[in-house]
Every structure is written in C-alpha cells, then in structure tokens.
C-alpha cells in the first residue's frame, strides 16, 4: 500500500541510566544483555516530524537543520512500514534542544520521538509498551524514553524481543530529584555505544561478571527507589557508573570516555557530598558528568560544577514526562 501524504510530530525526552545498560544478546532485534533503570530529563528533548510522501523515491532526513545519514533510519522505518502494510518513503525532520552526539543521549530521545511520530504518521496507534519495543530496535536506551520519571528496562528472555521493553516506575512528581549535566566537551564522541558494546564476551574478561551481577544491582535499585532512599539510590548509581567504565576500560581495545574535566567533576561531586550536599555522579559513553541531586539541591550543585576547571557549561533539569504527539 501507499500513503499519499500523512504526517505527525512527536516530542521525546532524553534519559540517563542510574543502573546502566551495556552489552547485547546475540542475534537480531537489538536485545540487551542486562536490564537498566533510568530517569527521564525534562529539559533535554527531541522533536521529530515524519511525513510519509508517495512522491519520495527514498527516505530522507534532516537533523538540526543539516542533512542526516539514513543508514540507521531506513531499516528502522522499514519496521514501521512492515507493520502498517505500506511501502511509502518518508521525510524525517528532527531537532534536539541540546548538543547532538555529545553524550547527552540524543539517540534515546531521537529514536523514541521517531517511533512515536513514524507510527502515528503511518496510521498506527501503538500502546506505550509496543512503542518501547519498537524504540529499542533503534537504540537500547530509547526504549526508556517512551516513559517519564523513573523507568525500568527489562532485559527479557525471548528471542523475539517481545519481553524486552521499559516500564514506568515513578512519575516525576512522585520523587522530584534533579539532574545537573556538566558539559566538558561538545565534540562528537569517538566510539559510539553500538560499536563499544559489540561482542563484549570476546573482548572483555570482566563482561561475564557485569552480566552476573546485573540482576542484584537492579533489585537493590528497585528497593531503594520504592523507599525514596536517596543515599542508597545515589550510591548504587555511582557504583553502576564506575563498574560500567571499568568494563569499558577492560575492553580490547580499551575505551576511555573521560577527559581531565570529567574526573575533576567526579571529585567535585564527592567533595560536595562530604560537605553535606546529597549529590552523586553518573557518566555514559562520553565525557559529560551528570549529577543526581536530591530534591531542592540542583541549583547549588550547578553553581559548584560550573566552577570546575574544564567544565564548559552546566544544565539543570527536573524529571521529564513521557513521549507524546505534539502535532
Ligand atoms: O542506547 P545505546 O545503544 O546508545 O546505549 C546506551 C548506553 C549507555 O548510555 C552508556 C548506558 C545506558 O543505559 O543508557
């Protein structure tokens, strides 16, 4: 079938994992080797418009006003087209309200917004779980950006991926923690997450230990979130971050995502904590430091991190809402 012209626009927010996802199961459909738990960020989002247009002979895409590569987008749109029973090509126009590709999780908000906009434009009405499953196939972390507040991504066990989806844990107002992002470098990261985490079983002696301890880390985090126990949530968050980076460093060839300012910001967070501020750090596959702050402490943390040598910019954010259609 074809769609002569049909469009939708969606907004999805970025998220950061407190218990990290890293590593894939063998086979297709981008199946994670471990579950993860994240918070969705209110101030960082992607707006994406998808137009199915029967006059197009190929998909085309624009990101932040520049032409974008469709190599990862066409196979993703093919999933939507197969489901809708159409073969119409699409035009994608996407904009982040934050620097793209600099470790601020643009693939998470990007694929979540694309899933929602593309399915709506194709005439489909997927529920949140189905959207999460679809988003996962674009980027593992995107499965969590379908939801607001705190979310948990399930590893699942089925080969078809039907049980590898995220679910909401808490709404933003249930526990209004804050996040401060300290940007230490705005260049695009050198090793993207898909490459960094491929075939880890053959590339890191630490990988099996990472997988083996994942369930107990997730269980401890679930309990701490349910109890609103900020110190335990924070301690588990730093532990999962450092364990992830230990795994990355142990991979052949070793991945080092930190720069000197990243390390300085980590120490600054710990100094603040020793002086009584409830704040803990986490870092993804890039040099930015994200500080998890107890409710009401974001402003003071942002002020301190802005003064750390090498920190270029800080962004403070509350938790954000679920992905939604905006036009
Ligand atoms: O969604 P991906 O494939 O870009 O992987 C995300 C990996 C981390 O950001 C490092 C961890 C996470 O759980 O988000």
TrEMBL record:
Keyword set, alphabetical order: ATP-binding, Lipid biosynthesis, Lipid metabolism, Lyase, Nucleotide-binding
Signal peptide coordinates: none
Domain Mvd1 C-terminal: 179-289
Keyword Chloroplast applies: no
InterPro entries for the chain: GHMP_kinase_C_sf (IPR036554), Mev_decarb (IPR005935), Mev_diP_decarb (IPR029765), MVD-like_N (IPR053859), Mvd1_C (IPR041431), Ribosomal_Su5_D2-typ_SF (IPR020568), Ribsml_uS5_D2-typ_fold_subgr (IPR014721)
GO cellular component, one term: cytosol
GO molecular function: ATP binding; diphosphomevalonate decarboxylase activity
Diphosphomevalonate decarboxylase-like N-terminal domain boundaries: 12-164
Gene Ontology process terms (BP): isopentenyl diphosphate biosynthetic process, mevalonate pathway
Gene3D superfamilies per record: 3.30.230.10, GHMP kinase, C-terminal domain (3.30.70.890)
Family that this chain belongs to: Belongs to the diphosphomevalonate decarboxylase family.
Name used for this protein in its record: diphosphomevalonate decarboxylase
């Amino acid at each position: 079938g074809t769609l002569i012209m049909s469009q939708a626009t969606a907004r999805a927010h970025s998220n950061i994992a407190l218990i990290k996802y890293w590593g894939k199961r063998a086979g297709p459909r981008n199946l994670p080797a471990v579950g993860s738990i994240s918070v969705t960020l209110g101030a960082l989002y992607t707006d994406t418009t998808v137009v199915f247009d029967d006059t197009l002979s190929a998909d085309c895409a624009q990101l932040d006003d520049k032409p974008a590569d469709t190599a990862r987008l066409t196979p993703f749109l093919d999933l939507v087209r197969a489901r809708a029973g159409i073969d119409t090509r699409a035009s994608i126009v996407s904009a982040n309200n934050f620097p793209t590709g600099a470790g601020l999780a643009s693939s998470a908000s990007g694929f979540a917004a694309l899933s929602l906009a593309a399915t709506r434009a194709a005439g489909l009405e997927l529920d949140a779980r189905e959207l999460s499953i679809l988003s996962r196939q674009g980027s593992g972390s995107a499965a969590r950006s379908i939801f607001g507040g705190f979310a948990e991504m399930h590893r699942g066990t089925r080969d078809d991926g039907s049980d590898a989806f995220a679910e909401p844990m808490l709404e933003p107002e249930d526990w209004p923690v804050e996040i401060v992002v300290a940007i230490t470098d705005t260049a695009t990261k050198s090793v993207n997450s898909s490459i960094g985490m491929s075939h880890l079983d053959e590339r890191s002696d630490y990988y099996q230990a990472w997988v083996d301890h994942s369930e107990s880390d997730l269980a401890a985090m679930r309990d701490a979130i349910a109890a609103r126990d900020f110190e335990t949530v924070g301690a588990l968050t730093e532990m999962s971050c450092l364990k992830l980076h230990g795994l990355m460093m142990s991979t052949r060839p070793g991945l080092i995502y930190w720069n000197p300012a990243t390390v300085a910001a980590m120490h600054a967070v710990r100094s603040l904590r020793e002086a009584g501020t409830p704040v803990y750090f986490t870092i993804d596959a890039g040099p930015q430091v994200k500080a998890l702050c107890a409710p009401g402490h974001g402003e003071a943390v942002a002020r301190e991190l802005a003064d750390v040598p090498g920190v270029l910019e800080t962004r403070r954010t509350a938790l954000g809402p679920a992905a939604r259609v905006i036009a």
